[in-house]
Specification:
This protein has about 325 residues and is an alpha/beta fold. About 30% of the residues lie in helices and about 30% in strands. It has helices at about 15-25, 65-80, 110-120, 150-160, 175-185, 225-230, 230-235, 250-260, 280-285, 305-315, and strands spanning about 5-10, 25-30, 30-35, 40-45, 50-60, 85-90, 120-125, 145, 165, 185-195, 200-210, 215, 240-245, 265-275, 290-295, 300-305.
């Protein structure tokens, strides 16, 4: 694509370069430094009047700083005369607060998506944490989500056979059962109760056998009830895949791992779209399970590449 640049900060350079290569676009790394008072300095090094620019950013780990830098990048692109500014948020922050739970709270999901969408001509986000908001389109008409479901499905199909999929909460249940049914695997659905940022409890809600027949794990969802209904024998929980959209503190994953181990699982693989790994959650998970994520947030566990997913969406727009 002529007169088209893909830009990013250093952290996202590897993914952004792949996207640029797939699009036949040029790549430029954004310069950023801090002033002595911790204010940010941003400089975009591209030719004047470049017609189209895609800015790829993961807002994980330092979301506040990265949001400010994104607004500065938008301003810099305007000053350069860029005609079409696209933001690709490989991870979209501030999505957990999608309603007012207590008087006086901010609905951060709507506010942050809205601010970013107004700062760019188009906003793409890979699997944003949508729960009570059906789509980014309900927030802004120029904001769109990109799904990594098929990438994860293809990866599982190539790498794992005869596993049982565990979907630990409501968000993961939008793709766990679908992947399981397409690949002929059994799956277990859980209900998660969150008591605080770092304390959760999961209980089995229902399970589906390889044949497609389903059974309830009991109204109480207690582990003993699940055992008594033959969950261990029927699903053959020797090898399990735990699938979730975001791995942050890792508490949900660790609770699910413990459940699987109590039911006899000997091989456990945890797959996440976005690996935030707050408070070194990855170190705790890998003590009991193999850990795999996409490269929306770069790490040593990033085995599923989303570059083609991004380039396909950008190519449709242009």
């Amino acid at each position: 694509m002529s007169n088209f640049y893909v830009i990013s900060f250093k952290e996202m350079r590897s993914l952004a370069k792949k996207v640029a290569n797939e699009l036949g676009a040029a790549y430029s790394e954004i310069e950023m430094r801090k002033f002595p008072d911790n204010e940010l300095y941003v400089r975009v090094r591209i030719p004047l009047r470049t017609s189209r620019v895609a800015f790829i950013e993961s807002f994980a780990r330092k979301p506040n700083e990265k949001l400010i830098s994104a607004f500065l990048v938008s301003s810099a692109l305007e000053n350069l005369g860029v005609k079409s500014k696209i933001l690709v948020a490989s991870y979209m922050p501030y999505m957990r607060q999608d309603k007012v739970f207590h008087r006086g709270e901010s609905v951060s999901a709507r506010k942050i998506v809205g601010l970013l969408a107004r700062s760019f001509d188009r906003l793409y986000a890979i699997d944003p944490h949508l729960h009570r908001i059906p789509s980014l389109q309900h927030i802004s008409k120029n904001a769109f989500e990109i799904s990594a479901n098929e990438l994860v499905e293809d990866y599982i199909k190539r790498k794992f056979k005869s596993y049982v999929i565990l979907a630990p909460d409501e968000e993961s249940q939008q793709w766990g059962p679908r992947i399981a049914s397409k690949l002929g695997m059994g799956y277990v659905l859980f209900k998660k109760t969150r008591f605080s940022d770092r304390k959760v409890k999961i209980v089995p809600k229902s399970f589906v056998l390889h044949s497609g027949s389903s059974e309830s794990a009991g109204r109480s969802g207690e582990l003993a009830r699940a055992r008594s209904r033959g969950l261990k024998e029927k699903l053959k929980l020797e090898r399990v895949l735990v699938i979730d959209d975001i791995i942050s503190t890792g508490k949900t994953m660790l609770e699910t791992i413990q459940f699987a181990k109590k039911l006899g699982a000997r091989e456990i693989v945890c797959i996440g779209i976005h690996g935030i790994f707050a408070e070194q959650a990855d170190k705790r998970i890998v003590k009991s399970a193999q850990l795999i994520t996409t490269n929306t947030i770069p790490s040593s566990y990033s085995k599923i590449d989303v570059s083609r997913l991004i380039s396909t969406s950008l190519r449709k727009y242009f």
